[in-house]
Amino acid sequence: MRVFTKYIIIALLAFCPFASAFGQKTVSLRVMSMNIRQGGEYAGHKSQPYSDLIKQYNPDVIALQEVDYKTLRNGRRDWLNEVAMQTGMFPYFCKSITYQDGGFGVALLSKYPFYKCEKTVFVHDDTREDRATGWIYVQLPSGETVRVGVVHLSLETSQLTIQHFATINKAFFAEDTTTPALMIGDYNADKGSDPINYVKNKWMDVIPDMGKTIPTSGPTRQLDWVMGYPKGAWKCTKHEVLARTDMSDHCFIVADVELTIE
Fold first, then answer.
1. Pick the CATH number of 24-261 from 3.60.10.10, 3.90.660.10, 3.20.20.70, 3.90.79.10
2. Second label for 191, Cα 20 to 30 Å away, from 1, 78, 151, 259?
3. What is the pLDDT of residue 22?
């Protein structure tokens, strides 16, 4: 009888459509990408409009580009910390350059505390400005850890854009090649371009059907991307492109993504 039962179990596993997922775990999170255009100039550099939108969509992590820190044009406001306090999220600012007596760069906001943060800055004589890339280690409520990064790539030439991302890869994977990761932001490169093809050598396009993201007044190009590592581990279950002409020239991206862990 025991032998007969054993063969029944084996047969069920062989024909069960879920057999290939045996031992796997799926983790879900919602992410946003927000290029706020020169420190939020479209909204008068005010933080509240962006905070209200964030609260509406309730993401787990947000990647922000073109963030001002106490510049003259934004009235010397700590814009990121204002948004953090208004939304209850945890901030990480990565300064790219000194600008108007303050700072200008990229940032991340996380619903959950992060226990480690890192950055790298791309410096090159042929670019108009240095550009920071930052990432955080976030432990999700499920107990799983993911790395989430924010990127704003150089745009002068395709060759420089590729070189920029190559330096990001080198720094990002220098000490950690195992933690699943997302790299979100403004890649300044279109679908099918040499820079995006280069990025996809190591990363996967999590939202293949993203759609156009710039300009907000009638998008004609996709410059904003959600890339995932490792390949095949991520998928998007739902996404929305938000064309807010009152907030930026870039559309914002909201995406529900899933990570499958073996």
1. 3.60.10.10
2. 259
3. 58
